[in-house]
Predict the 3D structure of the following.
Amino acid sequence: MTQQHYFLPGIAALLLAVVFPIYWLYAFSVGAENFIEVYRADLLSLSLSDLAFVLIGVLEVYIYLCLRRSFSERLSSAAAAVLLLIMAILVVLFHATVLVDVALTLMGSSLTAHAIDTIAEVTVVIALGVLFAYGLVGFILSVVLLLNRTGAPSLLKYFAVVLLVGCLLQLTVILSPLNVFVFPVALLLLAFYFLKPPQLLEVV
């Protein structure tokens, strides 16, 4: 990939850095008082927020896959490449929960309230499990990048530090909402990493 080929991933990272906090701040504000009821109502309908949720997932997967490819040319870290692929898969699984919205919107009227509540609870548990796994894999990735002794770009080191902080917050679950501010910082660093001239580094 040339620097020109990294332009779109860089723009995608910038776009996600803006969309991500807007979406989640809105979601937190709407569901602050009664999360279960708001979430249940959201499952039974499709809205622009669902489209934004899908857009966030698509952008994040695209960024991770492009970053994975860049490592083969700029960093050549096999371990980091595998971890990024796992993270991309976990993002797909998390955002695939929107399919529950689609299914319930189409056939929710034929289900009992108890069945809908059960589906909502199971979906939340699965989503939290995926996010926990994402935090764990991201934590390992940040450590791999920070332990890389081949002269990785400074921006990548800074990204690893921010990713480390974000993943630790994610693993606590309770403090994970703070990532609405931390994750955009990591995305901005990735955007600069994609858009700056490439640096060829040794194999890790």
In short: DSSP finds eight helices and no strands in the chain. The chain has one domain: 4-195.
